[in-house]
Every structure is written in C-alpha cells, then in structure tokens.
Design a protein that fits this description.
Elements lengths: L4 H24 L6 E5 L6 H17 L3 E5 L6 H9 L6 E6 L1 H8 L7 H4 E15 L8 H10 L5 E4 L5 H13 L4 E4 L3 H10 L4 E5 H9 L4 E5 L24 E9 L4 H15 L2 H9 L3 E2 L4 H22 L5
Parallel strand pairs: 1-2, 1-3, 5-6, 5-7
Antiparallel strand pairs: 3-9, 4-7, 4-8, 4-9, 4-10
Length: 324
C-alpha cells in the first residue's frame, strides 16, 4: 500500500526524531564499555607516553578500561586509517602527533583526510631544541648561523627521518636563515642523537625528552628552542624567533576520534582530557617531557591542526621532502 505523501513525511520525521533521541541518550551513558585507544607509534615514544598519561585519569573518571593498542607504521597513517574506518561511536580513539599535519602533503595518496575525518579532543605541545655537537665552534645561535653561512653544505643536519617533524623544522630553518646544510635522515630519534653525540653529524633539531640529559651533561650544546617564545623548562635558552622573526616549529601530540561521533561524546572527552591535563601532577610530568598542556575546545584544537597542515604543506613542497 502506498502511503499518502503527508503520512510518509510524518513517519520520516518521527523516525528521525527517535533516532536523534536514542543517539542523545546513548551519548549520555558514554562510555558503557571498554574503549580502545589506537596509537600510531611504538610503545615508549612521545605519542604513547601522552596517551598513557591521559588514559589513567580517564579510566578512573569513566569507570571503564581503556585498552591501548600500538599500531605503528607510515608515520601514524596506519592507526589513523583504522580509526577512520571504525564505527563513529566514541569507542575507538586515536593518538597522533605533528606528523599528521605533514602527512597530508608528504604522502601522494591517503585513504583519509585528517582534518575532515578526525575530531581533535586533547593536545599537548612543546619545542624542539636546536642542538649542536661541542666540536662546532659556535657558542650561540647567531654564531651558528654565521658559521653555517661561511661553510655552505659542509654541515650535516640529522633528522629522525624524511618528512619527520625534526626534518621539516630543519628545512624551515634553512629557508628562513638562508643557510645550506646537508640533510642526513635516520630511522628514528635514537640513532640521530647517537650520531650527533659521536660527531658524525653537527646539528639536530630534537625533542627535549630524548636529549635533555645530554644537554645537562654538556655532551650536546643547546642553542635555541623552536617555539615562538622561550620554554619555561629552559629559561636561559633563547627562541629561534628572537633572531629570525616569524620562525616557529613545535612538537605536539594529540587525541582524536572519528569526526562523525556524537557531539556530546566529543565534548565529554575534550572536557575530561583538559581536566586531566590541568592536574598538577600531570603538569609536572609534562614539564619533564618538555611539553605543556594545550587546552581548548575541539574546534580550537582542530583549527590549530588545520593551520599546521597548511604551514607544513608549504615546507614539504619547497623542500622536496619525500616519505621514507
């Protein structure tokens, strides 16, 4: 039997209303079971540490276990695609880092669009540190730039891999300082730092957790931090922007989930992660990692990622960076 158009529209409207009501009710009891948190990197790395740091207070708050699954590969792309393909129900989260903004341009074809497909619900960020081997005669950042200009293409610049944030931060420095350094990519931060300590390479823009003890021991010389302002954990170290206005590069780690997830769930996770990051004990731990909480709404954090994607996309293009 064919329904009259008016009856059909009334039934459709009722179905939509019931669907919206059940969706809202479902979101209000979130989470009612365990949550899986996909991390795009091996255990022990910066993204993994961030996720585990936040997962504990969330577990206590929600009364449900959070199962962390390290699915490393392709600079976080494998885990991101897994989350995008998972149901948009809030039970599959993503742990990612600054590579997410770079990958959008670095890779010719991805099966997702990070900005379109992922809602960002939490973030921390901090500087990279411009580090040189003690054999480099420059004692300050301006002296190093002068030294690099006097020795074009003779300085080896390490990175944790082609297209890695440590690589792109170096390429941006080369472009804005108008210096020429030879890029030497490694498969990860550990071998890059090892060769910097050994003097096989002369400069590396690295993270604080991997290098702070070497800085304190005098085995590496810190010339500057890459954020737009000085880092409170290294107050005596200037920022690159004090000498090169407009230069800024940061390492950041984030939490996200499928963008089609109910707004109530997105907002709940965003609120509770921000609460966790504001805790004094976690703030102390973040400082040890060379980072600080980046508090904001999901929209605020998403806007930041979009801006970073545009910025690093330009660097990828002019540097000619390609994935390993």
């Amino acid at each position: 039997m064919k329904l009259p158009r008016r009856n059909f529209l009334q039934l459709a409207a009722s179905a939509a209303a019931l669907s919206g009501a059940s969706r809202a009710a479902w979101a209000q009891i979130y989470p009612s079971r365990s949550v899986r948190w996909m991390v795009g990197y091996p255990a022990g790395g910066g993204t993994d540490i961030f996720v585990r740091l936040v997962a504990q207070p969330l577990t206590e708050k929600f009364g449900q276990p959070i199962v962390i699954e390290n699915r490393a590969g392709a600079a976080g792309n494998i885990a991101t695609e897994a989350v995008v393909r998972a149901p948009a129900d809030g039970y599959t989260l993503l742990g990612f880092d600054a590579a997410a903004a770079i990958n959008a341009t670095l890779y010719d074809k991805l099966n997702f669009n990070f900005i379109r497909d992922i809602a960002v619900v939490g973030m921390i960020r901090g500087p990279l540190v411009v580090l040189v081997h003690p054999s480099v005669p420059a004692k300050t950042f301006p002296e190093f730039i002068a030294y690099a200009k006097a020795n074009p293409a003779k300085i080896n610049m390490a990175s944790a891999g082609n297209g890695n944030p440590t690589h792109l931060a170096g390429e941006l420095l080369k472009a804005m300082a108008k210096i020429d350094m030879a890029h030497v990519p490694y498969r990860g931060a550990a071998p890059a730092v090892s060769d910097l300590l050994g003097g096989q390479v002369q400069i590396y823009l690295g993270s604080l957790p991997a290098t702070i003890e070497h800085i304190r021991a005098g085995k590496l010389r810190a010339l500057a931090v890459t954020t737009s302002t000085r880092f409170e954990g290294l107050p005596d170290i200037p920022s690159v922007s004090e000498f090169i206005p407009g230069y800024e590069a940061s390492q950041w780690f984030g939490a996200g989930l499928h963008k089609s997830t109910a707004a109530a769930i997105v907002n709940t996770l965003n609120k509770e992660i921000n609460v966790a990051l504001a805790d004094s004990k976690i703030k102390t731990r973040l400082a040890d990692l060379g980072t600080t909480a980046f508090l904001g709404s999901s929209d605020d954090l998403g806007k930041f990622v979009a801006e970073e994607t545009e910025k690093w996309g330009k660097v990828v293009k002019f540097s000619g960076a390609r994935p390993d």
